[in-house]
C-alpha cells in the first residue's frame, strides 16, 4: 500500500477547516465552517434555506470556488489534487440533470465512461446498480417515461457507477411521496452498509433522524450544532404532545406547574412538559378538572424541535 493510500485509509471521509465563501455581491455564505465526517458514516447536513448548505456541498464537489479554508476528502486536498479528490466523490444533485431521451442503461454506462471505466466493466456495474435500485426492468426504456421516484433512484445509481467512497446527496427525496421516499431510504441504507460514506442534506427532518448517525446544523453560514444524533437529541429537555380528549375542551384549562397547555381545537389540547416530569401527574390534574384524555401522540419529531431551537437563536 502506498503512503497516500495509507493516509486516505486513516483520514476522515471529509475534513473541512475554517471554510469561508464570500460571493462577488458581498454575501458571506460560509463564515469559517469546520466539521469532520467519519469513514462509513451516514451524516446529515441540515439548515434552513440560505444557510450555506448548497455552497458547502458545491465547494466539496468542486463546483464552487472557496474564498478560504481547507477541504480534504479521505486525506486528499481538493485544491491541490482536484482530480484525485473528485474520483472519491459521487454527487446526487437536487435537480434531475440527465438526458430524458436516453435509456437508463446507457446513461449509467456513458457516465462511467467519462471517468475512465472500461465499457465492459461499466455494463456490469450498470446492471448491478439498476437491480439494486429496482430499475432493471426499466433499463432499456426512455428515461422520460420513468416516474419521479424512479428518476431519483436513477440519479443515485449513476453516482454509484464510479464506486465513490463518499456519496453526497442534496435533497434526494424532494418532491416524492412518502412511500417512494421510504423505498429510497432502504436503498441508501444498503449503500451505506456496503461501506460508502453518505452525506445527506434534507428538509425532511424525519428522514435525517431515521437514516443518519451524526449531524451538523448550519445557519447563516456557521455551524450551530454538530455531533452524534442520539447525543444531540438527548439534550432536549422538553417534550410536546397532542392530547385527544373526550367531549369538548373547556373554556379554562388547569394550571399545572412546569407545563404549558393550549387549546388546539374543540377536541385537542397541546401539551409541553419537561422530559423528567411524570406524565401521570399531568393526567391526574386534567382528570381533576373533568378532562378525560382519550389518546395522545407526539407533537413533532425530536429532531425538528432541536432544529427549530438551534436556528431560531438571535432571530428578531
From TrEMBL:
Task: Give UniProt keywords alphabetically.
Answer: ATP-binding, Nucleotide-binding, Transport
The reply to whether Lipid metabolism figures as a keyword in the UniProt entry is: no
Q: Which Gene3D superfamilies match?
A: P-loop containing nucleotide triphosphate hydrolases (3.40.50.300)
Q: Which residues form a coiled coil?
A: none
**Highest taxon of the source?**
Bacteria
Q: Give the ABC transporter domain ranges.
A: 14-245
Q: Name one GO molecular function term.
A: ATP hydrolysis activity
Q: Which InterPro entries match?
A: AAA+_ATPase, ABC_transporter-like_ATP-bd, ABC_transporter-like_CS, ABC_transporter_ATP-binding, P-loop_NTPase
Protein name, per record: ATP-binding cassette domain-containing protein
Q: Which organism is it from?
A: Noviluteimonas gilva
Amino acid at each position: 500500500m502506498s503512503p497516500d493510500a495509507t493516509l486516505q485509509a486513516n483520514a476522515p471521509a471529509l475534513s473541512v477547516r475554517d471554510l469561508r465563501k464570500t460571493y462577488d455581491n458581498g454575501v458571506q455564505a460560509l463564515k469559517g465552517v469546520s466539521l469532520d465526517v467519519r469513514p462509513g458514516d451516514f451524516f446529515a447536513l441540515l439548515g434552513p434555506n440560505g444557510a450555506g448548505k448548497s455552497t458547502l456541498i458545491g465547494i466539496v464537489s468542486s463546483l464552487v470556488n472557496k474564498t478560504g479554508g481547507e477541504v480534504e476528502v479521505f486525506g486528499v486536498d481538493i485544491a491541490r489534487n482536484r482530480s484525485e479528490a473528485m474520483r472519491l466523490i459521487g454527487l446526487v444533485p437536487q435537480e434531475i440533470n440527465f438526458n430524458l431521451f436516453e435509456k437508463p442503461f446507457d446513461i449509467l454506462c456513458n457516465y462511467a465512461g467519462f471517468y475512465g471505466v472500461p465499457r465492459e466493466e461499466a455494463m456490469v456495474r450498470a446492471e448491478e446498480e439498476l437491480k439494486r435500485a429496482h430499475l432493471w426492468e426499466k433499463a432499456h426504456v426512455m428515461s422520460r417515461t420513468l416516474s419521479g421516484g424512479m428518476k431519483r433512484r436513477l440519479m443515485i445509481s449513476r453516482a454509484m457507477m464510479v464506486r465513490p467512497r463518499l456519496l453526497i446527496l442534496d435533497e434526494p427525496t424532494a418532491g416524492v411521496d412518502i412511500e417512494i421516499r421510504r423505498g429510497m431510504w432502504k436503498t441508501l441504507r444498503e449503500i451505506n452498509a456496503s461501506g460508502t460514506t453518505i452525506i445527506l442534506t434534507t428538509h425532511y427532518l424525519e428522514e435525517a433522524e431515521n437514516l443518519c448517525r451524526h449531524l451538523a446544523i448550519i445557519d447563516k453560514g456557521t455551524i450551530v450544532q454538530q455531533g452524534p444524533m442520539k447525543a444531540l437529541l438527548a439534550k432536549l429537555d422538553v417534550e410536546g404532545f397532542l392530547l385527544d380528549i373526550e367531549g369538548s375542551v373547556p373554556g379554562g384549562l388547569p394550571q399545572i406547574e412546569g407545563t404549558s397547555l393550549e387549546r388546539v381545537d374543540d377536541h385537542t389540547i397541546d401539551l409541553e412538559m419537561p422530559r423528567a416530569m411524570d406524565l401521570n401527574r399531568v393526567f391526574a390534574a386534567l382528570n381533576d378538572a373533568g378532562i378525560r384524555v382519550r389518546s395522545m401522540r407526539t407533537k413533532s419529531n425530536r429532531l425538528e424541535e432541536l432544529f427549530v431551537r438551534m436556528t431560531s437563536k438571535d432571530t428578531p
